[in-house]
Amino acid sequence: MGKLFGTDGVRGVANRELTPELAYKLGRVGAYLLTNDTETRSIVIGRDTRVSGDMLEAALIAGICSVGVNVLRAGIIPTPAVAYLTRAFSAGGGVVISASHNPYEDNGIKFFGANGCKLPDAVEEEIERFVLVAENGLSSPTGDRVGRVFDVNDADRLYINFAKGAGPASLKGLRIVVDCANGAAYRVGPRIFKELGAEVIPLAVEPDGLNINVGCGSTNPARLQQEVVRQRADLGLAFDGDADRVIAVDEQGNIVDGDQIMVICAKRLKEQGRLAGDTLVATVMSNLGLHLALQEAGIKVLQTKVGDRYVLEELLRTGTNMGGEQSGHIIFLDHNTTGDGILTSMQLLNAVTGTGQSLGSLAGWMERLPQILENIRVREKETIMNDPRLEAAIQEQEARLAGQGRILVRPSGTEPLIRVMVEGRNRDVLMQVVNELVKVIREIER
After folding, report:
1. How far is 443 from 429, CA to CA, in rounded Å?
2. Nearest C-alpha neighbor of 48 from the set 66, 75, 80, 14
3. What is the pLDDT of residues 360-385, one digit of tens each?
4. Do 72 and 85 form a contact (C-beta atoms < 8 A)?
5. Hey, is 158 helix, strand or coil?
6. What is d(CA 74, CA 150) in angstroms, rounded to the nearest whole number?
7. C-alpha to C-alpha distance for 66 and 42, rounded to whole angstroms
8. Residue numbers annotated as active site
9. What pLDDT, on the 0 to 100 scale, is given for residue 1?
10. How far apart are CA 238 and CA 314, in angstroms?
11. Whole-model pTM?
């Protein structure tokens, strides 16, 4: 990727790295490039609950309107809702202001095309080139050709109705704890499950601009685990800050991660003859247990780089219809064009209600092998990744595993981190391998 875009849009500390000036330019260039060759002169905007959202939204809107494009403002709403609304309104594109699971100080800007898909690398590179080099060459219409802002007051309702179509007709009799991470799903999350008849215990639905993802959500599910057990609930669901991912908790308080959710949903879709090509697309981070469980079920697994954008590209390339990540970013292409936590929850609940089994029983379809992930904060990701000392250390530790595990070391696409993942059957050996690799990374960092 380039200087601005990572694997999930442009991210940084709001008002330091992601400034209003940059947001204005991104809005201006993005709107121009997405609508210049079309009759469509509108862009959908949605955001999460971060305190910096107002500031960045105002700057983006100004940029979009400055090139004569209208804004359809959806307000605080999940990322996948923007993808859906972009298609529903036949808009030229969509923009989401969110840094997903990152701390509240961070924020981000990511674009969708008119088809509701995240932009290909080539289009992001073109936006970046205009922003950094040629932005002043864009036209600036005046008078009645300046863009206007239209609020989409029923955005929540439209998205809820859409997502319901992917779920069971009724959830009556189920008690569900719903953790909305004080983020974009804090309104639509509890409502959709209540409307389907479930008894809902909501968590983290009081955003104040500063508490998004703090001690809650899909990356911090401990409170959800405790509450599911305390409330004697059937299951729990935890979304991240922009609700494009979900992690579940079974009736015993055990985590059911994205890999297990994919196994459950893929097997159900295959049984119903609805899994295209009897194939699932997963990333290199997926647990070996997923591969073994799906192999036994007669389901082929295709692997991609980490990032739901790459999962989507593979789905489109191969004509398959389901794929995702261990983190809970899961795409059901028959329904939506991006990772969708609420829609994934609907599909998971289809399996629960359709089989009559508990979530814990369904999660047992996959044996999750020990997998240790360590995130190391660094200054220069690429410098470390290209250092021969790291490559030598990886080779040495792979020899130590002797074919009984695997190592994946990669830079984060959204944060200044290097991620070290080691997988195998012996947890003690895995910890030793991780510690050795972290030690080498720290030595290089000095």
Report:
1. 21
2. 75
3. 999 999 998 898 999 999 988 989 99
4. yes
5. helix
6. 9
7. 12
8. 100
9. 46
10. 27
11. 0.88
**Tens digits of residue pLDDT in 320-346:** 999 999 999 999 999 999 999 999 999
Name the DSSP class of 384.
H
Give the full edge-to-edge strand order of the sheet including 149-151: 5-6, 9-13, 106-113, 93-97, 42-47, 70-76, 149-151
User: What is the CA 314 to chain-centroid distance, rounded?
Assistant: 16
Pairing mode of beta strands 255-256, 246-249: antiparallel
Q: Token match 């079309």: residue?
A: 38
Is 314 in a helix, a strand, or coil? helix
Given a cut of 80, whether residue 30 has pLDDT beyond it is: yes
Segment 90-128, tens digit of pLDDT: 999 999 999 999 999 999 999 999 999 999 889 999 999
**Contact present, 312 and 117 (Cβ < 8 Å):** yes
Q: Which residue from 126, 123, 98 is spatially nearest to 339, judged by alpha carbons?
A: 98
Instruction: Tell me the helices (H) and strands (E) count for the chain, helix number first.
Output: 15, 19
Task: State the CB neighbour count (10 A cutoff) for residue 19.
Answer: 16
Residue 303 to residues 117, 135, 208, 285, 318: CA-CA distances in angstroms?
20, 37, 39, 9, 12
List pLDDT tens digits, range 190-228.
999 999 999 999 999 999 999 999 999 999 999 999 999
Contact 219, 213 (CB under 8 A): yes
